[in-house]
Amino acid sequence: MNKRVPGYSTDQIGDYLSRYIEESASSGTPFFAVAAPVAPHNSLGVNYPNNGTKFPYPLPKKEYEGLFQDLELPQSPNFNPENRTGVNAIWQLERLDKGNVGQLQEFYRMRQRTLKSVDDMIETIVQKLDAEGVLDNTYIIYTSDNGYHIVSLNEYLQRGNHRLQAGKLQCFEEDINIPFVLRGPGVAKNQTWDLVTGHIDVAPTILELAGVEVDPAWQLDGTAISFPLESQLDYFRNLERRGDSSHLEFWGPFRQEGMFGQVNVDDNVNLNIYKALRVQGDGYNLMYSVWCQNGAHELYDMSWDAYQMTNLHPGAPSEDFSLNAYDRGMTTLLGRPTQHVLNRLDALVLVQKSCIADECREPWKQLHPDGRVKTLKQALNEGYDDFYTRSYREAKVGWKHCYNGLRAHNSSTLYSIDNEHPVWLNQTIRALVRSTATRPRLYGQLAWLLGWVAIASFMSY
C-alpha cells in the first residue's frame, strides 16, 4: 500500500537503511541493501515556484536551498562550442544564448544542493555500519545509473554539453562514464584501477562477493570484478578476464531537460536511437556509434579527442563550405586505414547488440572461435581484413524502422529486435566465421617471414 511519509525523501532513505543495518547486524546474519535516492533527479510532479516547465529543477532540502550561490558551471571546450558536433538532432542545435546558459547555471547549482543530502545519507549509513562494528567487514559500492551532460566528471576531465540542454540520454562520455567506487576487505585505499566495466558487471560482482555460485541457466551477461584488488598483480588478473569493450544503446525520441529542453522539438522527427561501443585497451581509446536516423555514425579517438569534438567517420557531417575530418585527410586510425578499423568495430557492435551470457563476456570469440583474438589490437591484424570487409559489406549494423517509442506499432510499444537487421550470427555470418575468421591469412605471415629472409640475405653480404 502506498503511503506518504513526511520529510525529505533522501533523509528518509538514510534513516530506513540505518534501522535495517542495526537490525541485521544485531542478528549476526549477512545482509544486502540498496539506497537509491531520487536526488539529484528533477522534481517531476512538484510545483516548484521558479520553474514552471514540465522539467522543473531538482528540489533540495529546505535548509540547503541557499547553498552554492557562487558555484560556477564547469565550461570545458565542448560546452556550447563554436562549431557543431555530434550527428542528427545534436548537429542541428544552435549555440546557447546568455539566458539559456544562466538557466543551466542555476540548474547545476540545484543539483549540487540536492546532492548535499546524498552526502549526508552516505555519512549516516557509514557511521551506522561503524557503530554496529561491521564497517570493516562490509563492501560499499557507490555508483549511478547514468551520467549527465551539464557537469564535469572530475578535475582532470571536464565535460561540456555540445550545445545540449541538461540531460543524460546521449552516448557522449559525460552521459555514460559513471563513478564506480568500492570500499571493503581486499580493496586498496585511494587507488584507481582502469578497467572496462559496465552495469552488467554489478550483479556478478555482488554474487561473487557473497559466495554465490552462478548458475549458467541465469545467463548473466557481465563479468565479476575479482577480489582482492590491492596490487598490480590483482589488477592484471582482472584485466585478463575482462574484455576491452562496453556496449551502449538507446531507443526513443530526442529529449532534453530544463526550461529550454523541449522548445520546438518534434518527437516524430528528432529521434534518439543508437547502438554504440566504447573500446579501450593498450594503445587505443575509441567511441563508435551507429544511429537509426539517417544512418548516421560517430567515431572518436579519445586518446587525443577527450571532448569528442572531431568525428573521424568518413560520413561525418560538415559545416557549410568545409570538409569533415576524413575528407581533410584524417584517413588512418591506429596505424590502419580508418575503414578497416570501422569494419571491426561494426562487427563487434553486431555481436553485442543481441548477445547472451558468454557471447557478451567474450564478444571477440564469436568472431574468432579459435580464441586467438581477444582485443581490437589483435583483430587489426591485416590477415583478417578480408573477413571484416565482407562482414561489413554483407551484415553491418542497421535498422528496418526508426520508432519513437511513444505509441504502439505493429511490433512493440517501445522496441523490438525485429526492427533491427540483421540479427547476429545469421547463416551468412556463420559461413564467414567458419571460412575466414579463425586465423590471419597465411600470405600476411609469409610476407613478414620473407621480409626477414631478405634482410638476413642482405646482411650476409
Automatic annotation (TrEMBL):
Protein name: Uncharacterized protein
